[in-house]
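Box S2. Input/output pair 1.
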Amino acid sequence: MKDPVFVAFSTQKGGAGKTTLTVLMASYLYYVRGMKVLVVDCDYPQYSIKEMRDRDVEILKINKTFLRNFNELRRRTQCDPYPILIAKPEDALARVQARIEAGHEYDIVLFDLPGTINNPGVAKTVSLMDYLFCPVAADKLILESSLAFAMKVRDEIMTLNGSSVKEMYMVWNLVDAREKTDLYDRYEEVFEEQMLQTLKTRLPDTKRYRREGSKDAARAVFRSTLLPPDKTLLKGSRLVDLVNEILGIIKL
């Protein structure tokens, strides 16, 4: 049995997109690529991904289109929805290891972590990731917060004895098409000065990233724990580019 790769989209600023990117990557890898995925929701106390799964399950009971698409997916893949493990950050690795020792196999384990890096339990869990991806947006508060987070991880986490982090990358999210490209290039020069790498893929600011199932609308769904991102909404989202770039980095 091979060891899974531990990956986290992590930052300390809410609204940067770490939970959304975790869900979208998990759903795409599992439902489209057929990889064995475990999601670990450590974002105590709100547990946002678990709440999203609960909402999805409730929508199954109400929305016939959502239910039909879900049943068709299960018929085609012969798979149940990917598991979501709820754990406090300090307990997360032990809980994952227990599942692996019990015989569960995973290609990738995606962690949704709280942004309180000063918490010893969070810091320890971050240090045991294989790869970290830090979402950042061209918003002053998000930019400063994400940069401070990444520098703290670089200086205080990746240097720890026993740290498993191989690489960390900044990820441009919520990119406004009206902004000049050289704005992001200049920011990336700052990242490079701080010895921080940046993914080539830049994700656009588009409402589709927030489109979930609803109780009464028979519309295409992009963000869901029970369905993959709708094919018609993938075009222009750059999500597939992001997934392919990350898979190349983590060698899956």
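Box S3. Input/output pair 2.
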Amino acid sequence: MTDHLRIERSAQSWTFTLNRPDKMNALNAPLVEALLQGVDDAHASGARMLVFQGEGRNFSAGFDQGDLNSQSDADLLLRLVRVEALLHLVASSPCLTVAFAHGRNFGAGVDLFAACRHRYSAADASFRMPGLRFGLVLGTRRFGDIVGYAKAREILEQTRQISATEAADIGLVTRLVEADGRADAVAEALQVATLLDPATQQHLYRVLESGRPDQDLADLVRSASRPGLKSRLLAYVSER
């Protein structure tokens, strides 16, 4: 397990805190692998609720672009496939999944937030998904399922930033919750998570699951495997 992820465990609830505050909790490969293993372990333990949050000034800046020069297109593709695997694992979890966002959040960090069933946000939070600027399709259908496809198209084609207020208006954010209200929100969510017996809760989630993981993965790979991924990412980084 990496130092980049803190996990607090109880019999019913596991809390995952992204712990790269100096990098705005960007998702590097070790952090993604730690999250995948941690969520698998929580499922195996019989946990009823998973909570995701970020240390420092935000939830997550998304895909870590800090070491692009040392990586090939193939390296980057594998990392993105693992991110998609994480998103599907969280979105299809038999547990109630809860995320808290604050500060500025980008790309795969927004996708991880959107993969959760209860999505709480501080009023200072903002969300931006710039992946299409470098030709990447990640989390697009899931975002469209949440906010509606017309609204998703409008936001994504402009790659524009969404405020917490707008995110709440369109359904990306379930409720605005400040840091001092997180404990109460977690307690309320845990009551919901344990209201039904585990088998019934899992059946409910399966019936309502709109996910198409094979299609999501195919769309990601099709976009990321187009030659020049690294060059497009470097060009995007240089423009910021």
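Caption for Box S3: The mean pLDDT is 95. The domain at 5-181 is CATH 3.90.226.10 (2-enoyl-CoA Hydratase; Chain A, domain 1).
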